[in-house]
Design a protein that fits this description.
By secondary structure, the protein is an alpha+beta fold. It contains nine helices and eight strands. The protein is rod-shaped.
């Protein structure tokens, strides 16, 4: 029998036993009520027999005619009680005694009717009156009925008590049998459940701790045995998946190593030829400039510029590769001071230009200063580059606290970009402006995104063509002290 069927049986068994208990109690209570009614009827018969005895003595002594109706009423009540007792009697000895009492009761009625006939006033002059003899026969008949009624009372009362005890004993054993059956069915089921859960928990912990999955063995054909088979199947699939993941991890590690080797190769093997090209172009221009016309000198300049551009592209690719491999070292440092240092480092790029730089007192956040320095370096360099046509150029840095993070925002009034292509801004080698408009390799913003992603933050950009751009990045931190956003900073002009 499976667990589901056992649980159904355990649930139905108390219901079945409750129905049996109710039926037994209902039928037993009916029988108990009959016995109690018999006791009450016997007690009433004793009382009415005493009343009939007193009434007959009164009739004899007074020869009065007033007690006749009361006597007949007592006899009718006795007959009704006898019929009720006879209809409820089941035991043979009780039936025999009631039959004898019914005969005695009939004889008592005859004696009372004879006594009633002698109590007529017209017969009062007869001497000697025969009423004493009739009354004596009536008294002896009542005297025989009274001990029988007392015996009937005692037997009915004893039978009611005995049957009541028997009824409650039957109910007790029904309850005990129900509890025993439920226990006999529940204990092995609960033990099965406990064993299955313990085994499943042990094997789950073993697998969770990195151990090799072992087969979970549960005998039988119930749901837990099927669960064990499903668990074993799942564990083996997880083991296969883990092995496949380890193989992919090894392959990925080898690919990363190959990429690093390629990066080193690019760094060392390609830089030298490019520098040689640039150097030889410089030598040619210096030695043969007089023999070259304007077009020749322009072509030499184009070759030199492309060599330098190729070298810059190599540097950016290496920077992107280092960004992916960098292990973050989060510390809490002065973000405002870092921005000032980066801005000073970029002074050569804004030389000779009117640039208004607005910067607040920035809130600090735990992050890697090397990575965030590169983020500010790329964002500020872009802002300086794309505001080249503005006089004055406006560059503003602000920050705000949000639940669980600090967001830094850099805005400028430069060339901006078409917001329809904002999803391409942070892609590698993707540019929204032509190379003849603004120089660059299209790698800087990809490095920004990679560093912010490694901090589990987010970066975004908004802008419009000719209306400037705003780049923001958010770094995770603890919950802010206030529920409202906190804006930092008194602006200062640099």
């Amino acid at each position: 029998m499976d667990i589901k069927a056992k649980l159904k049986l355990i649930g139905l068994l108390p219901l079945i036993m409750a129905v049996l208990f109710g039926l037994t109690f209902y039928r037993g209570q009916d029988r108990l009520d009959v016995l109690r009614d018999s006791t009450l009827l016997a007690a009433e018969m004793l009382d009415e027999l005493r009343q009939l005895e007193v009434l007959s003595r009164h009739i004899v002594e007074t020869r009065a005619n007033g007690g006749r109706r009361a006597g007949y009423q007592l006899l009718e009540d006795l007959d009704s009680q006898m019929l009720a007792l006879q209809s409820a009697a089941r035991e043979p000895n009780l039936v025999g005694m009631l039959d004898e009492m019914a005969g005695r009761l009939l004889l008592t009625r005859i004696h009372f009717m004879n006594l009633d006939g002698l109590s007529v006033p017209a017969l009062g002059q007869l001497e000697p009156p025969p009423s004493w003899e009739v009354a004596e026969r009536l008294r002896r008949s009542i005297a025989v009925l009274q001990p029988m009624a007392r015996r009937l009372f005692r037997d009915s009362d004893a039978a009611a008590l005995a049957y009541g005890r028997q009824l409650w004993m039957v109910e007790f054993w029904l309850l005990a049998a129900t509890a025993l059956l439920v226990m006999l069915l529940t204990y092995p089921t609960l033990r099965r459940v406990a064993t299955a859960i313990q085994s499943l928990s042990r094997e789950t912990r073993h697998v969770g701790e990195g151990g090799h999955p072992r087969d979970l063995v549960l005998s039988g054909e119930d749901e837990f045995a099927q669960l064990a088979r499903d668990f074993n199947h799942m564990a083996h699939r997880l083991a296969d998946a883990e092995q496949a993941r380890e193989r992919r991890a090894r392959d990925l590690e080898e690919a990363v190593k190959d990429l690093e080797n390629f990066s080193y190769s690019v760094s060392h093997d390609l830089r030298a030829p490019l520098r040689a090209i640039d150097g030889f172009i410089g030598i040619l221009e210096e030695d043969y400039a007089a023999s070259l016309d304007d077009e020749g000198r322009r072509l030499f300049g184009v070759v030199s510029a492309n060599a330098k551009k190729m070298e810059q592209l190599i540097d950016d690719i290496l920077a992107l590769s280092r960004a992916g491999r960098l292990e973050l070292d989060r510390i809490d440092f002065d973000m405002g001071r870092l921005v000032e240092e980066v801005w000073e480092d970029l002074s050569a790029q804004r030389a000779g230009r009117a640039v208004r730089f607005l910067c607040p007192r920035l809130p600090n956040v735990a992050c890697d200063p090397r990575a965030i320095r590169q983020v500010w370096q790329n964002l500020l360099a872009n802002a300086i580059k794309f505001t080249r046509g503005q006089d004055p150029a406006m560059i503003e840095v602000r920050a705000e606290r949000r639940p669980g993070m600090v967001c830094y925002r850099l805005s400028d009034n430069g060339a901006g970009f078409d917001p329809a292509y904002s999803n391409k801004l942070f892609g590698l080698f993707l540019r929204l402006h032509g190379i003849d408009e603004f120089e660059g390799t299209g790698v800087g913003l990809a490095i920004v995104k990679r560093f912010i992603d490694k901090h589990q933050g987010r970066v975004e950009a908004t802008g419009a063509t000719g209306a400037g751009a705003t780049f923001s990045f958010c770094l995770p931190t603890g919950p802010p002290k206030g529920s409202e956003e906190e804006f930092h900073g008194e602006q200062r002009l640099v």
